[in-house]
Design brief:
Helix content is about 50%, strand content about 15%. It is built from 13 helices and eight strands. It is globular and about 45 Å long.
Length: about 300
């Protein structure tokens, strides 16, 4: 399987330099990350919301080495929120944040990340939207869930992400499926050891369905993060069995992947949110997109050959 190899490469400085230097890379990266600045991304936001879609925005960047970089990440999100306020799109666009970007891995990182993310959550609430805390590798999750719980005391709409491939996630889902919660379920996109995570796609898919059933049967708001047609159909059936209306859950897919499906689901009356990333520190995000789906890797390799 190439996925683990690509995920390992996502942490390699040498591979970062090689891929960043390839002439074709920017063309392919633009498929998944359509801009570097707030100004770049505004036309994308307006285009997608104009087509009946909702968005969650991710300012890419994870390798934070100093408190000053973490503060800059916070300020980048605050600038985005200010632009959304000007556009009057607060209710259509939320934010997704990785706590590593807010300093979680630094000394005193738990408190630093909480201090940096809180003003972003406050500013989002002020324009009628919210923030979802993205899940990262398994060593960071206890801190993420603790910050999520703390933020929900004042901002109960704050969401979080859980990953189906981790053994712990079924218990996390039962704990999180309470009234007012917002939980995005994804398969998982980090290289995790066999001691903590399923390694086979079939096992991950089965876990995804079990966890999704828990969320649909619970009292919270499930967010179905998947491009898999089979899982999308299962999600619709589980929602029907649970008696959920179309506005009581949503689908989420990545920008640049299955765009026609985004529009189809929205046209059928489903809430469809597009996870849209932007920024200059794109390498880790891009490599996980390649690892998630063989078709993404094939697209990249074909582009390199055709442009070589």
């Amino acid at each position: 399987m190439l996925g683990p190899v690509i995920l390992a490469a996502s942490r390699s400085d040498r591979m970062r330099r090689l891929i960043s230097a390839a002439p074709v890379t920017k063309q392919v990266v633009d498929r998944f990350i359509p801009g570097e600045t707030v100004g770049d991304i505004v036309p994308i936001i307006e285009q997608l919301t104009g087509r009946g879609l909702e968005l969650t925005m991710d300012v890419v960047g994870e390798d934070i080495a100093t408190p000053e970089q973490a503060a800059a990440a916070r300020d980048a999100y605050l600038a985005l929120i200010d632009r959304l306020r000007e556009l009057g799109l607060g209710e259509r666009v939320e934010m997704s944040v990785k706590l590593s970007m807010f300093g979680q891995a630094l000394e005193g990182g738990h408190e630093l990340a909480l201090a940096n993310v809180r003003p972003v959550v406050e500013a989002a609430a002020a324009i009628g939207t919210t923030v979802t805390l993205d899940a990262e590798d398994h060593t960071t999750l206890d801190s993420m869930f603790a910050i999520h719980e703390e933020l929900r005391k004042d901002f109960p709409q704050t969401g979080c992400v859980i990953q189906a491939y981790l053994f712990r996630t079924e218990a996390d889902a039962r704990r999180l499926a309470d009234a007012g919660s917002r939980v995005r379920l994804v398969k998982g996109a980090y290289k995790e050891p066999a001691e903590v995570a399923y390694q086979q796609k079939s096992e991950i898919d089965k876990a995804y369905v079990r966890i999704l059933r828990t969320l649909m049967d619970g009292e919270g708001y499930p967010m179905v993060g998947s491009h898999d047609p089979r899982l999308i159909s299962i999600a619709q059936e589980l929602a029907r069995r649970a008696g959920r209306k179309p506005d009581e859950y949503e689908f989420q897919m990545l920008y640049g992947i299955r765009s026609d499906e985004h529009l189809r689901l929205a046209a059928e009356g489903h809430r469809m949110r597009v996870y849209t990333a932007y920024g200059t520190d794109w390498y880790g995000y891009f490599m996980r997109r390649l690892a998630e789906k063989p078709a993404n890797l094939r697209f990249f390799l074909r582009s390199m050959v055709s442009k070589g």
